Amino acid sequence: MISALAGLGMITGMDIDLTGRTALVTGSTKGIGLAIAAGLARAGASTVVNGRSKASVDSALDTLRSQVPGAKLQGVAADVATADGAETMREQVPDLDILVNNLGIFEARPVLDIDDDEWRRYFEVNVLSGVRLARLYLPGMTERGWGRVQFIASDSAVVTPEEMVHYGMSKTALLAVSRGYAKAAAGTGVTVNTVLAGPTHTAGVEKFVGELVGDDLPWDEAQRRFMAEHRPNSLLKRLIEPEEIANMVVYLSSEHASATTGGAVRVDGGYVDAILP
User: Fold this and answer.
1) Distance between CA atoms of residues 112 and 118, nearest Å
2) Cα torsion through 227, 108, 262, 9, rounded to 10
3) Where do the domains of the chain lie, and which CATH numbers do they carry?
4) Which residues contact 200 (CB under 8 A, 6 or more apart)?
């Protein structure tokens, strides 16, 4: 065992250096995506920020420049939920080392009220956006012998929320997609994983919480009621901060996570009541 591990060296700290790596985070103009972009930039990666409009991308870049002075940043305005948008991204960023498929939509709706077009929209945005980009960038990663692909899923992938079945369906699909791409990259030095994010504190979630428990409550009380009534399994008993999700993504993007692939890695605050996803 000692001889087999000798060439790997001993990790004495968890300093993560992504200098020289290029990373793309889709849907990164706000919320979890913006936090992930900041984390990757702090670790030294040349980070590509993505959103649908130039205005939102420029605003996010301004925020990141203030948070991470000296960061290497690029912005690409493209709707990567479409085939044309994915091609635009590839034209502007031909090669990637790290692909974080974060783009996603969610909304509470009774399952019997969800029509065919809405089912298709959730699949297009939450699933096919990542599928297309992985298909475009994974071959280059495998040729170079190094790469990291991550799909940002949710606890809803394994604990289907009654009020968002269409969202849960799309996140469940990502588990299969991620595992399949990991098999396609087997033995190449490229890892592919899903990150199961738990209930996270974003502007969108604040609105969602207000819809469920009432938007006239002070935020602390609204959050407490939401967790108690709608997410009682959480062991944190609070919403996760976006930076806490970003920490896991940055780790999985590093050399330290070289043996983690094909997995569904949980950052769910203990919400999923199971030993395995």
Assistant:
1) 12
2) -40
3) 17-200+240-267 (3.40.50.720)
4) 31, 32, 239, 240, 241, 242, 244, 245
Q: What is the pLDDT of residues 245-262, one digit of tens each?
A: 999 999 999 999 999 999
Is residue 56 a contact partner of residue 103, using CB atoms and an 8 Å limit?
no
- pTM for this model (two decimals): 0.92
- The sign of the CA dihedral 199, 200, 202, 206 is positive
Q: Is the dihedral of CA 24, 254, 178, 161 positive or negative?
A: negative
Catalytic residue among 137, 167, 181, 271: 167
Beta bridge partners of 192: 149
> Judging by beta carbons within 10 Å of its beta carbon (0-12, 13-18, 19+), is residue 230 exposed, middle or buried?
middle
Using CA atoms, how far residue 253 sits from 234, 241, 263, in Å, is 26, 19, 14
Q: Is the separation of the CB atoms in 173 and 125 below 8 Å? A: no
Q: Is the dihedral of CA 127, 186, 147, 246 positive or negative?
A: positive
pLDDT per residue over 190-238, tens digit each? 999 999 999 999 988 899 899 899 989 999 999 999 999 998 999 999 9
239 φ, ψ to 5°? -70, 145
**Cα 271 from Cα 219, distance rounded (Å):** 21
146, 99 Cβ separation under 8 angstroms? no
The phi and psi torsions of 160 (rounded to 5 degrees) equal: -65, 120
Catalytic annotation on 181?
no
Token pair of 93 as six digits: 């960023």
